[in-house]
Amino acid sequence: MNQTKTSIMEKSENWLKVPLAMDSEAGQLPAPTSTQLSHLVADDVRSNPKFQGTAQKIIQNCGDNPALNRVIAEALNHIAKQNGDDWTVERALEEMDSRCSTGKTSKSKQISLMRYGFEMWPRSDLAMINCCWHSRQFFRNNGGVHYNVLITNWILEECFGLVDNFDKAYHQGHEVLMNLIEHDLLKTEKDNDNVVIMEELVRDIPDTQYNGFVWKPTLGLSGVYEDKKWLGLDSVGPADGMIRTSEEDWKDVSVLLVDGYHLCQEIIETYFTTLKNLQVLAIFRPRIKALPVSLTMLGKLHFLVLKDCDLLEKIDDLVNLKALTVLEISNANNFKHIPEDLFNCLSKLRSLNLSKTGIEKLPSSLSKLDELRSINLRGCHCLKALPILKRLVKLQLLDISGATSLERLGDKSINTLQDLQQLDLSQTQIVHVPFLKNMKQLSRLSYRDCKELIRLPNLRGLSGLQVLDVSGALKLKEIQDDTFSEDNNLKMLDLSRTAVSCLPCTIRNLSNLELLNLSEMSKLVELEDDIFNNMACLRHLNLSKSLVEKLPSLNGLVNIQELKLQECSKLQELPSLTTLKKLEVLDLSGCVSFKAFKEGESFIHMTHLQRLDLSETKIEILPDLSGLHNLSHLLLRNCVNLKKLPCISSFKLKELNVYGAENLRDWEAELPDSMNQLEILNLSETQLRSVPLNNYTNLRELSLRGCELQTTLQLDKLTNLEVLDLSRTLINSLQMQTITNLTNLRQLLLTDCSELQEIPTLEPLVKLEALHLKGTKVKKFPCQMAKVTRLMHLDLPASSDTLELNWTGIKSLPGELNWDLFGMPSELKNITNKPSMIVRNMNSFETMKAIPEIWNSCFNKFFISVCPLKTDEEDEEIYVHQDGTSFQDIYFHVMSYRHEYSPFLEIRRFKSFPAGLEDALMKVEYVSLVENGFIRSLSELGNANNLKGCWIWSCTKLESLMKKDKDNDNLTLLNNLEILWISNLPILKNVHSTGLQFESIRNLTQLYIDSCPQLETLFKSSHLSKSLEILHVKFCDRLKIICESKEECILEKLHSLNLVELPELTDIGLKFPSLRTANIRNCPKLGENFEKELGLEEPRVERDLICEQWDGSQINRNGEATSLRSF
């Protein structure tokens, strides 16, 4: 396996220059198409009766703006494609028509329409939305920008999340860029196709989403560049798994974005020695505890970005990087101290991101950074105070959200920060907030979950404030009457979960308010009758879980779309709803005192109503619903006084739920035959005797639990059904025959179906996860257990001792099974070949533990593998190919696993420790850890003190077996360890652990190490197991010595030695007097006499076994052999 490797510091042959244009024939930007709205929308939008009138009104009021037209068309086409899931085309056109009538100027109307279009854009394309919002701010501070600068900024600002593949991220950025250009949101300059600018209208859209940006800036890079000095970012591209500038000579590279795992293959201390011209350096997931000396000598460095550096502890030598304008050290819990004078040396800093670090205080020298535009301290849980900030007059963003120990700011007033746009103190312990006076640029202010906050500052001078969030400020009891001025621009106000008992009188000044959240205000018991009269712009009102007994007049809320009153336990009636013509959501669920709407109240004017939820109310009679043609959700759960369902005419109904309406007997009219959008129908625990299934072929959930049905169920056409609950019905075996057609079924619930004696085979139901047969008379299980591989919950009949059930070939154990009634099947007791068993629900172990017969044998009878349940996709078969060919033997051969190793447990592909596995780990003696993201050391396994063998494969966060200090009390974990097999651990630095009394590993007899590129030394002499019999080491590129010792070390029992592809190995440092087999290949630095030194010339050594029987390959899912290094 002789392989060559090109250093990433050499000229790349893989450099990829991605052009801005994507026209494959001409090499030019795509030819422009018509931007008229009527040409951009889909046919089903254009054919809507309201379209032509609305389009004409848009042109009259807003002109024919290409960017505006494309945003509107994208939104309308999405709505039409989704079939009116959240909006209907007609509703959207009406809203656009309305917005054309508001605003004093054409520009303000354009902005209102553009903002509305963005709000309706599909949230599935978060990357494009994130990048668009970022660019909106970026182009406010910068003119035309080279497209490479923009893409790189998107990556650094995490618009795509924390990327792990730079090639993919760059190309994703390029694709988003082209989409923004195609939508006329970005444009290329006339004289330079590589420079883009943003449509002016987009830059002016306010950020008034309820939760603000879908994406929040991490660095605020929009304000850090000076005079369009892009620091080489305009010349970058993807190459060699990095993003960098394309200089032929490595020493001339000025921009480098690289992953820390990539750097694990290099000598990090000297890696940056030749990069003297580096100006921008970003390392994602660096595996370092301190900054390499060569990095701290980069005098020209302007950007230093270290993301997700969970090992970093010290940054003392940063003082040398005096040119820095951007510094990020994020997700570094072990980084707790900043040198007091650090910021004296970094006087040019414009952006500082220390989010999710372990720092407890910031040095006072921060107060002198008068060039700072952005400070991000989000998630700094240990931070207790801030220094004085009043000199940071250019600051635009201050985010301290999630600093849960922060009790105070250093300033009583921050009035000098006149450029501040966003201030976020959410989830801090702050009691008194600084004064905010005449800060006209401040648009977002958040004190969310500030549980110690007792008073708000006066907000009258904040004319630009649009979003105020004080939700969860539990001790806030009062808001001063003069808080809101008449010239305010506030659009969103959230006072939920506060102790405010009376709203300020100036709340009537909030004429621009669009969202008002007053939910869970336990002290608010009364609202003045005229409070909503001046809130014509209000679209969302939430009063849920309040103690208000009577609502004020709602007549002024002519644009209200959402009215939430959940669990208002004292609310008995509603005021007139006649003016709420745009209402889409009316939610009264949990209003247990509500009995009726006003006499004569009709919903006929609410043509836009989509969701009506009256669950758990005392309502007896529903108003006429026949005019609600857009109604998609009608929820009447536990309406125990309801006796009759009114006529429902909406063909768009997706959910009808009357569960628990126990007095409901009749339909006023049958549901329409053509209601083919119905997905959920729940008639459980009612007295309805007919089920109007008709042609509801789109039905996903059908629940008829407890219904006394008098009609025959026709299930054969319901092929989209995923949940079928027929519990406590009189359904018989004949009616169940068509169930085999329901191939999408996930849950089949037949509990207490006393007439059911037989059900057809379940083999076609490949997605079945839950099967309830308890209380039936079924005598024969409808298929082999091995055929229902996704079954998570199995509830068998109480007479299961006579149930005929075939366990042969079972591969997956149900997560929940009533073992207490069923016991251990004889087929499982007599198993001798130890088959593989997948467990996806940790409840299995808790259930089995209660039954000693099962608990004591399950790990010995099966090779048990626990893995998370995948959703919306087929399960991957771990041990069987699609053609049915087992490669379990190959898998076990690679692992050097034997069937006598038991009890055995494999843990595979978990991102966090699987709760519920603790007892199983205490039970087993052999554990395999495969592709787990939570493993950083073996102490994560808890009290697995019986461990004799451990296999660790592709656990990329594991750095050492046991860690100093943390694991001193848990060393008994390794007391009995005899077999250790590790492979593909990119950051593992040592097998031994410095500083630990590592006596417990001395019983080790077999050690297998494969593809651990950071290993340089295997053992210190004091940590060496004298019991070692087998030592196999392969593909460890930096391994220099097997045993580091000043004296001769002898392994008396070692009889098998395997050293393959160790290019840096210079010394073994051991003697093997009992060696019988040896295989040493491609270890060029061992020297000429290594055979003699190791005793390989002795007659006892079987030299013909130097060639391995197994070549280190593994079989991939397509049946092809690939290198073990890439497994």
From TrEMBL:
SMART domains: LRR_TYP. This is Disease resistance protein At4g19050. Gene3D superfamilies: Ribonuclease Inhibitor (3.80.10.10). The keyword Lipoprotein does not apply. Keywords: Leucine-rich repeat, Repeat. It comes from the Eukaryota. InterPro entries: Leu-rich_rpt, Leu-rich_rpt_typical-subtyp, LRR_dom_sf.
